[in-house]
Design goal:
Strand 1 (120-122) and strand 2 (129-131) form a beta hairpin. Helix content is 27%, strand content 13%. The protein has 452 residues and is an alpha+beta fold. The protein contains eleven helices and eleven strands. It is globular. Strands 7-11-8-10-9 form a five-stranded mixed sheet.
């Protein structure tokens, strides 16, 4: 025991100073591609007239039957957003890494194109194939035998893959996908349609599964904001010049916020989201503001600090259109009526994050991003006569934070990932489905209608 106690003390102290990210002990393998741009492979011929004898007895080096791998086509490496100077190809690799072009970066900054390009999965509630970003993955967790009563359930349904992989590990094993909608989660628990995905007859049902998923979706927003702040903090690029429009985040002034409210449109081309997050009020008893929390455990109903119900809460989000002159991420492509008009989601932090510690963490992360953006702009600020004359003029800002994403600021941080996390939260709370039909809209292009 005297030898064991110091070891336990060192282990406990290490756990208290545990980093927020998961530590990967193994070295990551560099992606290797077998793609060779110089190699041109002609498709083999299986016509018997082209062979004097059996195809199995033809050229042994290029035989399409015994040497079928010779005719395989390999994909090239995916382009990266930023490629450092002097980047070399991997060992025994014939494909050299490349950087995204300006058009590819423009497509990458669109959260909607990235959601549509996610892997296709089958929804267990609607039996429709949808991109995985429009679905929620649920997996089966086997309960330990010590906690199982006799004849009790041996499996439990838990959400999986909602948090970022930097913070938690995705569970393996059996699972299924359902629509990213609160009603779909309640429906699959009521109808018990999950039985066709497992052989176990006894499954423990969590009555607050929808609340747990909603809590993890809000936590994913905080995780993406924290990763964006860490990326901006350690960015080694030169500071922004005075008047650079490629900012990631900024606060709207009161005049801009009033103009947006009165006109009903957002006249900013690179805007992807607007968040209205005021500071959290102090506790009337302790006179202290709540501390920010990024815990993965959902709060108990008694712990939730609901705002006073003197006024009805605003909607979680709504869409504000852009002026008709703005083009979408498709660039110069003529898509007719396939794409809808460009809109920007407007999120109310009080409704989207009702739990006060989570809302406090959201406000802290947004102010941290704002301070990093200001610090970067001040390093490259060059005072002029006009700016020095108006330096004493104070501009009053609102509680609205504007998130921007374009092909230039994506090199400093991935804002589209934050927009995707916010949109998934909006979908789960019944805000991302048009007319609550939960089906795809193929537009009004007559050429598309002819294909149906």
């Amino acid at each position: 025991m005297p030898r064991l106690a110091p070891r336990l003390a060192t282990v406990l102290t290490k756990d208290t100073n545990k980093p927020k990210y998961l530590s990967f002990t193994k070295n990551r393998r560099r992606k290797k591609s077998l793609h060779d741009a110089k190699r041109t492979v002609q498709p083999p011929s299986f016509n018997f007239r082209n062979y004097d004898r059996s195809i199995l007895l033809s050229d042994p080096k290029h035989n399409p039957i015994t040497k079928s791998r010779h005719y395989e086509m390999h994909k090239s490496l995916p382009p990266s957003i930023y490629l450092p100077k002097g980047a070399l190809k991997g060992r025994r690799a014939k494909d050299r890494p490349r950087e995204m072009t300006a058009q590819e970066r423009k497509w990458w900054t669109s959260p909607y194109l990235r959601m549509l390009s996610s892997p296709i999965r089958l929804c267990a509630a609607t039996d429709q194939f949808l991109p995985s970003d429009f679905l929620i993955r649920l997996s089966f967790l086997r309960l330990p035998p010590s906690r199982l009563p006799r004849g009790g359930p041996s499996l439990a349904i838990v959400p999986d893959g909602i948090q970022h992989s930097k913070y938690t590990v995705k569970r393996g094993g059996h699972g299924f996908h359902i629509l990213c909608l609160r009603e779909a989660v309640d429906q699959i628990l009521t109808t018990r349609s999950y039985r066709r995905t497992t052989r176990e007859s006894t499954v423990a049902l969590n009555t607050r599964l929808a609340d747990q998923i909603s809590h993890l979706l809000r936590l994913r927003v905080l995780q993406e904001l924290e990763r964006l702040a860490d990326r901006m903090q350690y960015d080694l690029r030169p500071p922004l010049e005075n008047g650079n429009p490629h900012t990631i985040i900024r606060r709207l002034t009161r005049d801009e916020f009033a103009s947006i409210k009165s006109s009903g449109t957002i006249g900013l081309e690179n805007a992807v989201a607007v968040l209205v997050v005021p500071p959290v009020n102090r506790n009337p008893i302790t006179k202290m503001r709540p501390q920010g929390s990024m815990s993965s455990m959902p709060p108990n109903p008694e712990q939730e600090m609901a705002p006073p119900k003197t006024k009805p809460l605003p909607p979680l989000s709504f869409l504000m259109p852009k002026p008709s002159g703005f083009q979408s991420c498709s660039g110069n492509l003529s898509l007719g009526g396939l794409l809808p008009n460009a809109t920007v989601p407007f999120y109310n932090g009080l409704t989207a994050f009702p739990y006060a510690p989570q809302r406090a963490a959201l406000h802290e992360l947004l102010t941290r991003l704002l301070s990093l953006e200001r610090k970067r702009s001040q390093h490259g600020f060059k005072p002029t006569r006009e700016s020095s004359g108006d330096s004493h003029a104070k501009v009053k800002h609102s509680h609205a934070f504007l998130l921007c994403s374009d092909q230039e600021n994506v090199k400093r941080g991935d804002v589209a990932a934050v927009a995707i996390a916010l949109w998934r939260l909006r979908m789960f709370e019944s805000g991302g489905w048009e007319d609550r039909t939960y089906s795809w809209s193929l537009g009004t292009d007559p050429d598309i209608q002819k294909l149906l």
